[in-house]
Every structure is written in structure tokens, then in C-alpha cells.
Amino acid sequence: MEVLLVSLLNGLVYGMLLFMLASGLTLIFSMMGVLNFAHGSIYMLGAYFAYESTRWIGFWSALLIAPLLCGAIGAAIEIWGLRRVHHNGHIAELLFTFGLVFIIGRSVQMAWGMLPMPYRVPASLDFPLFTLYGLQFPAYRGFMLLISAGMLGGIWLLLKRTRVGMIIQAALTHPGMTAALGHNVPLVFTIVFAGGCFLAGLAGVIGGNYQSTEPGIADAMGPIVFVVVVFGGLGSLAGCFIASIIMGMVVTFSVVIDASIADLLRPIGIVPRSDDLLGEILTVPVARIGALLPLLMMVLILFFRPRGLLGTRDT
């Protein structure tokens, strides 16, 4: 019971961190149809900007400054990059954002080096929120849950209950009519892309000291975020949220499960042979293949439901 509850809490925290990062990518794709390969790199920039801001003016200021810097970079990318290659189709957009991954990665290495940065949890949140079975649940993780829940509510209200949200959705579905009504459609797309990068930067501020601020975080978080977006359904914010929680739980629980598939088959009389490839695979503990489970789940969802859980577009 202790392991179950602790794993549930840790899985929820990790899942909400995934949602914070994946929500920006989902917003960009649902509004613009652009699958931004560099989204994980923007997350990394948010963590590094937060580290520098924390050194000089404190963590609470970094919560605003780092995401704004990431949003400004996103606006520059859309204006001087994506807008120019947009007319060449989605392949050109994908290649452009894929190239940004290497540019941003090398720039970070040149500026901050290869070693992890000492980006710490702020002292004001460095205390146990409560104790469960003798294990302390950090207040900072509760803060992460609060911020991610606020982000979910804020995005939903913006898109569904404000005039700005209606203009954004109208610019996506009927750009010509929206422009005829006097709205600047290219500016709307710039704001959407910058907003998605702002959310990625905010996730970097929150997640940079939860994980580790070093050049490998983009490579670590980028693939799992794309798995979340594809599994939940491209363009669906609700699907993104559900998939984030599922993947967070899967990754967290897989770490503590020492059993294998063969252990589950033995009670029903099936004993895999250990001298063939299939038998060896079935006897591998789940903890050793935990990192592969989200990828396997993505393959399965693409096979049985290509649109994802709640997707509105074909993947």
C-alpha cells in the first residue's frame, strides 16, 4: 500500500509536468498545424533562463522572466523562420524545427557548458508538505501540481470563454473571413506560437530544478512529449491531459515493478522457455524496459486508433 500511494503521487507529479510541456505543443499544432520538433529545446532554454534569473533576482521573478524570454524567441522563430517556409509545406516546417534542435542544443553547450547547473528548489518551498508512511512529500511538488492545474484552467478559459480565443480558432478554420473582419491573421499565428513557447518555458522553470538542468534534458523530455501528444491525439488538449497522466503513471510504476510477463503467465500454467528469444524477452523485469513502455503504447494506439485518444486530426 505504501509503494502504491507513493508511486501514485510521484506519477501524478510527473504526469502534470509532462502536461505542462505537452500543452504548448498541442496548442501550436491545434491552432497552426505545425508539429514543432524544437519544443523540448525551448523547455531546456526555459530551465537555463530560470537558473540565470534565479541567481540574480530570485526564483519568483524567474517564473515570469524565463517564459517571456522563451515566448520572445518563439515569436522570432515564427516571424523570421516558419512564416518563410510555410508556403513550402509541412515537410519544410518539420525540417526547419528539426534543425533548430541542433542549433539551440549547441548554443546552450557553448553558453553554459556540458555540466549540470546548480539550479535548486527555492528555499521558500523546500520543506515537506505532508508525511505519508514515513516518507515526506515535498512542498515543491505540490507547487508543481498547482501551477499545472492553473495552466490547464487558464488555457481552457482562454480558448473557450474569451474573444481572443474565438479569434484564434476562427483564424485557424476561416483565415480569409477572419482577415476580412479586420484581424491580423499572421499576428494571431505569431501569438499562438509564442504562447506555446511561453508554456514550454514555464515548464522549464518548474521542471528544471525538479529534474536536472543540463544539455541532455531536451533529449530526455522531447521524445516522451511527442509520445504524449500522439497518444492523446494531435490537437486535443483534453487528450493531451489524459495521456500525460497515463504516461506519468506508466513510467513511475514501471520503475518499482520487478515482475516480468513470465511471472504473470506461470499461475495459469504457461512457463516460457528460457532457451529461446521469446522466452528471454518474457522474463525481462518490467523495471528494465520501463523507458520503452510509452513507445510501445504509442505504437499500439497508432495501430488501433491512428487519431489517438481524443484526436481531431490524423497522425
Characterise the protein shown here.
The protein is mainly α and 315 residues long. It has a single domain, classed as ABC transporter involved in vitamin B12 uptake, BtuC, CATH 1.10.3470. The chain is built from 13 helices and 2 strands, in the order H-H-H-H-E-E-H-H-H-H-H-H-H-H-H. It has a two-stranded antiparallel sheet. A hairpin with a 2-residue loop joins strand 1 and strand 2. The model has no long low-confidence stretch (mean pLDDT 84).
Show the helix and strand layout.
Blueprint: H1 2-32, H2 39-57, H3 59-85, H4 90-112, E1 128-132, E2 135-138, H5 139-161, H6 163-173, H7 175-180, H8 185-208, H9 217-232, H10 237-256, H11 261-265, H12 277-282, H13 293-304
Antiparallel strand pairs: 1-2
Helix pairs in contact: 1-5, 1-8, 1-9, 1-10, 2-3, 2-4, 2-8, 2-9, 3-8, 5-6, 9-10, 9-13
Short synopsis of the structure:
This protein is mainly α and 315 residues long.
CATH architecture: Orthogonal Bundle
**Helix-strand makeup class:** mainly alpha
Q: Please, how many domains? A: 1
What is the number of helices? 13
What is the makeup of the main sheet?
2 strands, antiparallel
The gyration radius over C-alpha positions equals 21 Å
H/E series, N to C? HHHHEEHHHHHHHHH
Describe the strand arrangement of the main beta sheet, using strand numbers. Answer: 1-2
Number of separate strands:
2
| pLDDT averaged over residues | 84
**Which percent range describes the beta-strand content?**
under 5%
Short key terms for the protein model shown above:
ABC transporter involved in vitamin B12 uptake, BtuC; two-stranded antiparallel sheet; 315 residues; globular; 3% strand; 71% helix; 2 strands; mainly alpha
